[in-house]
Design brief:
Layout (H helix, E strand, L loop, with lengths): L1 E8 L3 H12 L1 H8 L1 E9 L15 E3 L3 H4 L4 E6 L6 H11 L3 E4 L2 H17 L4 E2 L10 H8 L5 E7 L2 H13 L3 H10 L8 H4 L2 H15 L9 E2 L7 H9 L2 E12 L2 E12 L11 E8 L3 E8 L3 H20 L28 E11 L4 H11 L4 E6 L7 E8 L2 E2 H12 L9 E6 L4
Parallel strand pairs: 1-2, 1-4, 2-3, 4-5, 5-6, 8-10, 10-17
Antiparallel strand pairs: 7-9, 7-11, 9-10, 11-12, 13-15, 13-16, 13-17, 14-15
C-alpha cells in the first residue's frame, strides 16, 4: 500500500481537527483511499501549547520551510489564514510541485485566479472544499455533481455568525449589540467581528461559488456587499407580521451575459426552506436546468466539520496519486483555457421588491409627500403599514413596494431623506420571493 505524506501549516483549531482525523481515522481512511495517509510534519509558531492530541511520530516544528521543502511530502494543507504569509507559503508549495489543500476563502477570493495559474504551471492540484460552507460539499457539488447543468441561480446562508445573531434577535427581541455579545461569548463571533457581520466573509464565498458555477474568473471586487449591523428588532417584527424572515443571503443569478452577485440582508417568505435555517447553521439552494432545485445544509464552521471537508480534499488528491493521475478535475470546474471574464451586473440595474421603513414626522401631508416622491421615480407601493405609538413626534411607517429598479429606489430615498418629512436614513431591505 502506497504511503502519501502530508504536511500541515497552522496548528490552530482546524489544524488540530485535521490532525485528529488523520490519526484517529487512520484505518477508515486507508480502507477508503487505498493509501496510507501519513501526517509527517506540522508547522506552527506555537509548538508548546497542548492541543489534546497524541501526535505519535508526527514532527511539530516552528519553521514552515521544513514542510515546504521536504521532498517526501506530497500534500500540504494550509490552515494559517490571512492573505500575506499564507499566500507566500501556498505559492511556494505549488512551485515545489506539491499539491495544496486550503480552507482560506479570503485568499482564494482575492488571489485565486493567480493561484490557479500557478497550480497549472506546476501541474499540481489546489483544493478548497472547506472554504465555503464548512462540511457542506458545495465545491464538489458544483464542480462535479452538477457538471451537466447550467446553474441559473444560487441563494445561500454562508455565515454562521450572522445567522446566529439574526436568529437570536428574531426569537428574543434583543438588540443587535446584545446578540453579537452573546455570539462572542459562545465562540460564534470573533472579538473583532467586522469580516463576518459586515458581509465580507459571505462575499468571499460567493465569489468562489460564482466562478465554479459559471466558468468565470473569481471576481470579488464587483460583488455588492451589505452587512447586518443596521437590522433592528423592529424590522424583524415587521417581517414576521408579513410572513417573512430576515436572513443575510449570498445571491448569484445569471442575467443574459452578466452574473448577478450580491450579499445583503434579505426578507424571504416563511415557506422558503432557507427561512428555517437557524443559529450557526449554513445552507445553500442551487437552481439548475437539469436537476431543478438542490439544497445542502450543515455546519458552516467549527473544528471537526471543517476538518472533515479538508480530509475530503486530501482523500481526492491521494486517490489521484495512487492511480497515477494529476489534476483530474479542473480547479474551478472548467479547464483553465475555458475560464472567461463574465461581468457582474451593476447593482443599480437590480429589479426586486423592497421593504422601506421611515421614521416619519407626525405632520399632515407627510405620507402623501413620501408616496409622491416614490411615484415620481416609478416605484409602485403595494402596501403601507403603521404600527406603534409615535415617539418624540415620529411614527414608524413601513411601505412594501412592487418590483422596482434599485437605481429608482436609491434616487427616491435620497430625495425623501432631504425633506423634513422623515428623521434619519430610511431602512431598506430587499425582498426575494423565489430564492429557494
Amino acid at each position: 500500500m502506497k504511503t502519501i505524506h502530508i504536511g500541515i501549516l497552522g496548528f490552530g483549531v482546524v489544524g488540530t481537527g485535521v490532525a485528529t482525523l488523520l490519526t484517529r481515522k487512520k484505518q477508515l481512511l486507508e480502507s477508503r483511499t487505498g493509501a496510507r495517509l501519513n501526517l509527517k510534519t506540522i508547522a506552527d509558531i506555537d509548538t508548546q501549547t497542548n492541543r489534546g492530541i497524541d501526535l505519535g511520530s508526527t514532527a511539530l516544528v516552528s519553521d514552515a520551510m521544513t514542510v515546504l521543502t521536504d521532498p517526501d511530502i506530497d500534500i500540504i494543507v494550509e490552515l494559517i489564514g490571512g492573505e500575506t504569509v499564507a499566500r507566500k507559503f501556498i505559492c511556494q508549495a505549488l512551485e515545489n510541485k506539491k499539491h495544496v489543500v486550503t480552507a482560506n476563502k479570503a485568499l482564494l477570493a482575492g488571489w485565486g485566479n493567480d493561484l490557479v495559474k500557478t497550480a497549472r504551471n506546476n501541474q499540481v492540484d489546489l483544493a478548497f472544499e472547506a472554504s465555503c460552507g464548512g462540511c457542506m460539499p458545495i465545491i464538489k457539488t458544483l464542480r462535479e455533481s452538477l457538471v451537466a447543468n447550467d446553474i441559473t441561480s444560487m441563494s445561500a446562508i454562508l455565515n454562521g455568525t450572522c445567522n446566529y445573531i439574526l436568529t437570536r434577535i428574531s426569537r428574543e427581541g434583543c438588540s443587535f449589540e446584545e446578540a453579537l455579545k452573546k455570539a462572542q461569548e459562545l465562540g460564534f463571533a470573533e472579538a473583532e467581528p467586522s469580516l463576518d457581520i459586515d458581509g465580507h466573509d459571505t462575499a468571499h464565498k460567493l465569489a468562489i461559488l460564482n466562478a465554479l458555477s459559471h466558468g468565470m474568473e473569481i471576481n470579488l471586487k464587483d460583488i455588492h456587499v451589505e452587512g447586518i449591523r443596521h437590522i433592528t428588532p423592529t424590522d424583524i417584527a415587521f417581517a414576521k407580521s408579513f410572513g417573512y424572515t430576515i436572513k443575510l443571503l449570498a445571491i448569484g443569478k445569471i442575467h443574459g451575459n452578466h452574473v448577478e452577485a450580491r450579499v445583503h440582508p434579505t426578507m424571504i417568505d416563511n415557506a422558503n426552506p432557507l427561512s428555517h435555517v437557524d443559529h450557526s447553521m449554513n445552507a445553500i439552494a442551487i437552481d439548475a436546468d437539469a436537476t431543478g432545485r438542490t439544497m445542502l445544509y450543515g455546519h458552516g464552521a467549527g473544528m471537526m466539520p471543517t476538518a472533515s471537508a479538508v480530509l475530503s480534499d486530501i482523500a481526492d488528491i491521494a486517490r489521484n496519486i495512487i492511480s497515477g493521475t494529476k489534476r483530474r478535475v479542473p480547479i474551478l470546474g472548467y479547464p483553465e483555457d475555458n475560464i472567461r471574464q463574465i461581468p457582474v451586473l451593476s447593482m443599480k440595474e437590480l429589479m426586486t421588491r423592497y421593504y422601506l421603513r421611515f421614521e416619519a414626522q407626525d405632520h399632515p401631508g407627510v405620507l402623501s409627500r413620501i408616496s409622491g416622491i416614490l411615484g415620481e421615480n416609478q416605484i409602485s407601493i403595494k402596501s403601507v403599514h403603521q404600527k406603534g405609538r409615535k415617539t418624540n413626534g415620529k411614527v414608524p411607517v413601513v411601505m412594501i413596494t412592487h418590483t422596482a429598479r434599485e437605481e429608482w429606489v436609491q434616487t427616491a430615498l435620497s430625495r425623501i431623506s432631504a425633506t423634513d418629512s422623515v428623521v434619519g436614513n430610511p431602512m431598506v431591505i430587499r425582498i426575494e420571493e423565489e430564492v429557494a
